[in-house]
Specification:
Radius of gyration: 23 Å
Number of strands: 13
Order of helices and strands: EHEHEHHEHEHEHEHEHHEHEEHEEH
Structural class: alpha/beta
Number of domains: 2
Shape: elongated
Number of helices: 13
Largest sheet: 7 strands, mixed
Strand content: 15-25%
Length: 418
């Protein structure tokens, strides 16, 4: 082991919780215990209560001592969904990061681990740069997490496979419900800027491929991503074609769909003024506005003159996608691995990095991945989108996406109908 500075370590969780974010927490603790703590370079391991918001408190109330956490309890926490330490939506700027660094000095913290998305990577970057400028030896590591799967450099991110599994299973059951009673069913799925999670709805079809036309596909018949400009006229024509042939239509649509000018569809269809989040964005997740608006549009436009309106229902999955307590086995293992790898990077003498997942094999029944490192600046504040090769036309995903996503979610059930 290289000659590293001795001090304490701190771990935090940031952003939306997931089904496996605590596996990453456990992985960092495991890695520290096996490496830096065992060598005497790390004395105490702290957890931040609600991310950096807890770290910057003037007292130690925002820090939880995890040094002697019992192994059995650590495993139980690792299996639990949601952020065990609590999370935060704070996006630290330069002044905020100065407070973070001050707290690290005050608590003799020399190893900083932050589990989160691209904003968390940016926090690590700013803090690392400030520490270097002020000649305070602090090693900063970003551990990836996001169900949106939008971190660049990564093949995919911990949290996404479990959320994708939930979406696929939900669409499976919902598709059978729709087939039993008929009608038009709209499911609004998370993803303001990246459509990976909505695209995962295609896995509900199993291995069935019935043709390229929407009315010849297994459900879901229509999938709309924010990467593809959304036209209400084309949408209505798509729905009408499926409904006319099948008497039903199941739709998966991203909450962040936009028109050809890049303007979000949700706010345009809202029946009432929408709430905004902490960053000024109109609240989409859980509001139901997009689903209700699309349902109203379909009823209004597809009701024959003097005839009966089609049966239309909409569900907004919202936060329920994030922490369903039956994670993908692949996700569970990889989330643990990225945490351990971050601690290993620190023990190897690395000053700062973002951990990434690299797919090494996608052969049938032989999926494998490894952890690697990327520079913080390569990941921070950048957004990955569904690539063109994963998209088919304006309302579906490609076989390439299916091959990419299918190994991540674990075994899915197979159903038969009379």
């Amino acid at each position: 082991m290289p000659d590293l500075v001795a001090g304490n370590a701190v771990i935090g969780q940031s952003g939306g919780p997931t089904a496996v974010i605590n596996q990453s927490l456990a992985g960092v603790i495991e890695g520290l215990r096996a490496g830096l703590a065992a060598s005497g370079k790390v004395g105490r391991i702290f957890g931040m209560r609600h991310g950096v918001r807890g770290l910057i408190k003037p007292s130690t109330d925002g820090l939880l001592d995890l040094t002697a956490l019992d192994r059995a309890k650590l495993e139980a926490i690792a299996r639990a969904p949601s952020a065990a330490l609590g999370s935060t939506r704070d996006k630290p700027d330069e002044a905020y990061c100065e407070k973070i660094l001050d707290s690290c000095r005050r608590n003799d913290i020399r190893y900083f681990f932050y589990i989160g998305g691209n904003d968390s990577a940016d926090t690590c970057r700013i803090v690392s740069e400030k520490a270097s400028t002020s000649s305070y030896e602090l090693r900063c590591f970003h551990v990836p997490k996001t169900i949106d799967n939008d971190l660049v450099e990564n093949d995919h991110t911990p949290g996404f496979p479990s959320a994708a599994r939930y979406v696929a299973l939900a669409l499976m059951g919902d598709g059978l419900d729709n087939a039993s009673l008929g009608g038009i069913k709209i499911n609004v799925i998370m993803g303001r800027n990246a459509g990976f999670l909505t695209a995962a709805a295609a896995l509900a079809r199993g291995d069935v491929a019935l043709g390229s036309a929407p009315q010849d596909r297994a459900a879901p018949h229509l999938i709309y991503l924010p990467e593809v400009p959304f036209s209400t006229d084309a949408f209505l024509a798509d729905v009408e074609a499926v409904y006319a042939k099948l008497g039903r239509c199941q739709i998966a649509v991203s909450e962040g769909i936009r028109d050809a000018h890049g303007e979000e569809i949700g706010p345009k269809l809202m029946r009432w003024p929408g709430e905004v989040d902490a960053h000024g964005n109109v609240q989409l997740s859980g509001s139901g506005a997009l689903g209700d608006g699309l349902a109203d549009l379909v009823k209004t436009q597809l009701t024959p003159k003097g005839g009966k309106a089609p049966r239309v229902r909409a569900d907004t999955f919202g936060y329920i996608q994030r922490c369903w307590p039956e994670p993908s086995p692949v996700d569970r293992g990889e989330a643990r691995a990225v945490g351990r790898y971050a601690a290993e990077l620190a023990a190897s003498g690395d000053a700062s990095a973002s951990v990434i997942i690299v797919r090494t094999s996608n052969a049938p029944d032989a999926y494998r991945s490894d952890c690697a490192r990327a520079e913080l600046a390569a990941v921070a504040r950048r957004t990955r989108h569904v690539p063109p090769e994963f998209i088919s036309g304006t309302n579906d995903v490609s076989a390439a996406f299916h091959a990419y996503c299918r190994p991540l979610v674990g075994e899915l059930p197979k159903f038969e109908r009379l």
